[in-house]
Each structure stands twice: as structure tokens, then as C-alpha cells.
Write a structure and sequence with these properties.
405 residues; mainly beta; Neuraminidase; 5-stranded antiparallel sheet
Length: 405
């Protein structure tokens, strides 16, 4: 379908504005040197800052794809086409011209409905997709009975047929434990690390216990598995990579360090961006810059006093006092927007819904700009395409939007 430019927003709506504090990631480190080198120092994974290139023409939004229902996850194939999930349980292919296919067959059955956060959620392709045509889907799996009684986050591996119409050899390689008959906090972002192992973000399933703080379960965790669902052998505990999460809904690999970064939802306020280290404890439910439901958001009601250090890892960035519900995210590495290279883009779905552009200095987020806020839609995912443009899932209207110029 032809591109259709969306209405431009006022210039002042796209100015950078600082909305909250920037917090250094290293809660456990008393000094930069204690963490193994400063920004730009020899041996540091963080490159020295480069001069900012001049900005090009203003960025604009165009509609690349329409006709979707609650799109949730987006993954590009090597030829520039894409796969997109729809929360009710459909997987579709989008060709390079933006033409949407019929739903593919072979997708696992999902637990979904109008009042649940569950459904068919994320999709990623195998690092060796060109040779094996494997893809991976995360979803809320219905009650299977027996050992799988209750609803839980699951990940299935499948082979995408050459004609792009079917999934073959579908195998469930991961199931979150324990399972519950609840409707929320499935987490479910998928991202491959540089070593070829798969990170899975898992919500706490809204179970009001200390479960995210213990390693005898997979509630409120990031887990890391092999492509067969096995243990890579160098996790923190079993399949667990990190603990103390509430509901991580975005994940991306830092292009310079290869480290995992995630976005996650707080309660009332306290939404976070976290640099996720092996064995890191990110505080939930003991500490959050957000406030318990039923209380008036503000400084006085922060859970556990808000500040994570020294017991837990401080967020790299957080939003207070109102939640913006951060979702999918990506680091920009392309050439189309040289002035944005190295920036982190985060979709948001709640208060003042828009695309957030975060600038970094080494591991520290230094500022935030709200882009396309006049659009006011739930931006569920954001990915960089092989063409160097940015693509955003508009869950509200069922569109895939392209950011170009």
C-alpha cells in the first residue's frame, strides 16, 4: 500500500525536555573505577562520546501497514519484509511494500480476551534464520491440564515455511512456572544476546508475594535459554538471569556492550529502564519509585523509600509520579538519522503516550525527548528496519508506522 504521511506535530512538541531524574546504573559500585573503568577509558566497553552530527530534515511518520488488530511484536526478516503478531492469536507476514498477508497457519493456541493482557505476544527470528528459518513466539498459554494447569507465559520455536504461509515443527521450548489463572503481567519480550542465547522477560503475574525476590520460581524474572530451551550453563541460578522485576515489556541489546536493557512497568509511577546484569536484583516488590495503588502518587509513598541502592540495582531511568507504561524499545544504529545514533527509543502506552528518545552518556541516560506526542496512541513496539528507518506498532489503530524523513 502507498505511504500516507500523518499530520505533523508542532515544532515545540518535539523539543527535548527532562521529565525526571537520570540515575546512574551502578548502585553497587561506589565509584566508576570500581566498575572496571570510566566512560571512554582504556578497557571500558563504553566508547568516548563523538561530536553530534548535524540534524537532517525533520522526521515524519507514515503509515506502512494498516488493518491489524492489537499488534504486539514485530520482527524483520533478512529480505526487509517482516512478521507481526496480533494479540488475539494471529501471526502475519508483511512484504517490503507493506502488503499484509492472511494469518499464518500453525500458530499455537493462546489465552486471550478483551480483559486480559495475554495473547500472542512477541516474535523474534533465529540468529541463523537464513540457514534454519526458525522463529520464536512468546504467548500466554491456556490451561493444558496435568502438569500445566493454569495460564502461563510460554515460548514456542517453529520453522517458517518457504512460502511464508505456515509454521512447521512447532515446539514449546519454555514454560513459566508456576502457572496461575490470572490475566496480567505476562512480560514476554524476546531478544537474542550476541552469544546466540535467548532472553525472555517475565512478569510477576500480579501475584502479591515475594516471589520475584527468590530463585525457586520464574515470576518477575529475566530468564536466558538456549534455542532448544536448555540451560546455557552460565546464568545466575538455573535458567534465571536476573530477579526483582514487575512486568518487563521491552528489551534490547546495547550495540556497544552487548548487554541487555529492558523497560518495565512500576505501579503508580516508577516505570523503569534497566541495564540488566547477570544476578542483578531490581527491587520488586520491596522497592520502587512508584506508589502502591490506592495511595496518592508522590514522594512520601514510594515503595521501600524508592531508592534502590545499596541492596538493589538502581534503574538507569525512571518516570515519576505518573506511569507512562513503557513497552518495546530499540537502540538506533542506522545511518538515516545520524543525529540519533546510539539513542534508545521506547514506546509508551499510558500518560502522554508517544515515542520516547533517550540519550546516553556511557551507561547513564542523560535526557529524554518526547516524539510524536500529538498522535496520542499506544505505541506497543519499536524496531529499526534493515532500511535504517524506525518502525512503530500503533496498537490503538492497528497500524505499523514508519519514521522516515
Amino acid at each position: 500500500m502507498p505511504d500516507r504521511p500523518l499530520p505533523s506535530e508542532p515544532a515545540d512538541a518535539r523539543r527535548r525536555e527532562l521529565l525526571c531524574h537520570a540515575v546512574r546504573y551502578a548502585a553497587a559500585c561506589a565509584t566508576v573505577s570500581a566498575c572496571g573503568g570510566g566512560h571512554g577509558d582504556p578497557g571500558s566497553p563504553w566508547p568516548a562520546p563523538a561530536p553530534s552530527p548535524p540534524a537532517g530534515p525533520p522526521a515524519r511518520l507514515t503509515r506502512w501497514v494498516t488493518g491489524l488488530q492489537q499488534p504486539w511484536g514485530l520482527a524483520f526478516l533478512p529480505d526487509g519484509s517482516a512478521l507481526v503478531t496480533e494479540k488475539p492469536g494471529r501471526l502475519r507476514h508483511v512484504d517490503t511494500e507493506g502488503t499484509l498477508s492472511a494469518p499464518l497457519s500453525g500458530v499455537p493456541g493462546v489465552y486471550s480476551g478483551a480483559d486480559t493482557q495475554g495473547g500472542l505476544l512477541d516474535v523474534v527470528i533465529d540468529p541463523n534464520f537464513t540457514a534454519n528459518r526458525r522463529i520464536y513466539l512468546s504467548y500466554a498459554e491456556p490451561d493444558q491440564g496435568g502438569a500445566y494447569t493454569g495460564i502461563g507465559t510460554a515460548v514456542a520455536r517453529a520453522v517458517l515455511s518457504a512460502d511464508l504461509r505456515n509454521l512447521e515443527a512447532v515446539t514449546v521450548i519454555y514454560r513459566q512456572t508456576p502457572r496461575f489463572n490470572g490475566d496480567g503481567h505476562f512480560g514476554s519480550r524476546l531478544v537474542f544476546g550476541r552469544d546466540g542465547h535467548l532472553f525472555i522477560t517475565l512478569g510477576d503475574r500480579q501475584v502479591q508475594t515475594e516471589a520475584p525476590q527468590t530463585t525457586d520460581n520464574h515470576l518477575g524474572k529475566v530468564v536466558r535459554i538456549t534455542t532448544d530451551g536448555g540451560n546455557p550453563g552460565n546464568n545466575f541460578s538455573g535458567l534465571i538471569w536476573s530477579v526483582g522485576h514487575r512486568n518487563p515489556q521491552g528489551a534490547a541489546i546495547h550495540p556497544d556492550t552487548g548487554e541487555l536493557w529492558i523497560s518495565e512497568h512500576g505501579p503508580q509511577g516508577g516505570d523503569e529502564i534497566n541495564r540488566v546484569l547477570r544476578g542483578g536484583n531490581y527491587g520488586w516488590p520491596r522497592v520502587s519509585y512508584g506508589c502502591p495503588y490506592g495511595q496518592t502518587p508522590g514522594e512520601a509513598c514510594r515503595i521501600g523509600g524508592g531508592t534502590h541502592a545499596p541492596s538493589f540495582v538502581e534503574p538507569a531511568w525512571y518516570w515519576v509520579p505518573i506511569s507512562c507504561a513503557p513497552s518495546g524499545m530499540c537502540f538506533y544504529t542506522g545511518d538515516r538519522f545520524p543525529e540519533w545514533r546510539g539513542n534508545l527509543f521506547v514506546g509508551t502506552m499510558a500518560d502522554q503516550r508517544c515515542l520516547r528518545r533517550l540519550t546516553l552518556n556511557g551507561p547513564t541516560v542523560t535526557s529524554e525527548e518526547r516524539l510524536f506526542r500529538s498522535l496520542d496512541v499506544r505505541m506497543r513496539d519499536v524496531k529499526q528496519g534493515p532500511d535504517g528507518w524506525l518502525y512503530v506498532l500503533d496498537e490503538t489503530n492497528g497500524h505499523i508506522l514508519r519514521i522516515d524523513r
